[in-house]
Amino acid sequence: MEHITSYISVLQDTVGKLPVESITRVVETLQNARLEGRKVFIMGNGGSASTATHFVCDLAKNTRHDSLPHFRVIGLTDNMAIFSAYANDEGYENVFAAQLANLVEAEDVVIAISASGNSANVVKAIEAAKSYNAVTVGFTGFAGGKLASLVDIQVHVDSYVIEHVEDIHLMLEHMIVKAIKDLAVSESLAKV
CA nearest 171: which of 32, 15, 8, 40? Predict the structure, then answer.
């Protein structure tokens, strides 16, 4: 029982340290991308791949509103055929960057989710995205890793506990999607 209460307590403290300003910037960035017809790409490895897929699903489906364009969101972890082809032929470190090279354009949004911030394939993808003048976002944990200094907007979870970092990354995607849904409703009401 003590392990569970400790887990919850530390998780609550970590959530309390989240950078609200950075989260707000992500919401604004995504809302602008939506309104301007820009694409949004999301990626991660392992548990972060699951969070990336979840984020793609929620952003595509749960934010739909009759008075607004739908999100053009693409999960870079979700097409196993292309993912494994790039991994096999060009190396695992290129699986995301190679996909971006086919699709990304200036001012698109590229979101990287990495607890350590040091996954080579995520770092290479963000470097590629920046070379195309895309807006880059990183969800990080631990010390932020290389990703922290590369992205335009970092949302850092101040923890070295992988489970907490991954829990909170999923919470962040839900917070962001909920904020975008709320924006759509308030903008719709303002037009009435």
Answer: 15
- pLDDT score for 1: 85
The one-letter code for the residue type at 2 is: E
**3-class SS of residue 140:** strand
Rounded distance between C-alpha atoms, residue 162 and residue 117, angstroms: 12
Predicted pLDDT at 185:
80
pLDDT reported for residue 188: 64
Tokens describing residue 58: 């929620």
- CA–CA gap between residue 107 and residue 94 (Å, rounded): 21
Q: How far apart are CA 52 and CA 75, in angstroms?
A: 7
Spatial CB neighbours of 106, under 8 Å, sequence gap ≥ 6? 132, 133, 134
State how far the Cα of 47 lies from the Cα of 179, in Å rounded to an integer. Answer: 23
> What residues in the chain have per-residue pLDDT under 70?
188-192
The two three-digit tokens of residue 131, written as one number = 């070379």
Q: Are 118 and 145 in contact (CB under 8 A)?
A: yes
Residue 138's φ and ψ, nearest 5 degrees, are -125, 130
pLDDT at 191: 66
The domains found in the chain, sorted by start residue, are 2-191 (3.40.50.10490)
**For 69, which DSSP code?**
P
DSSP states of 75-88: ETTS-HHHHHHHHH
How far apart are alpha carbons 52 and 58 in whole angstroms? 10
Of the candidates 37, 45, 34, the one whose C-alpha atom is nearest the C-alpha of residue 93 is 45
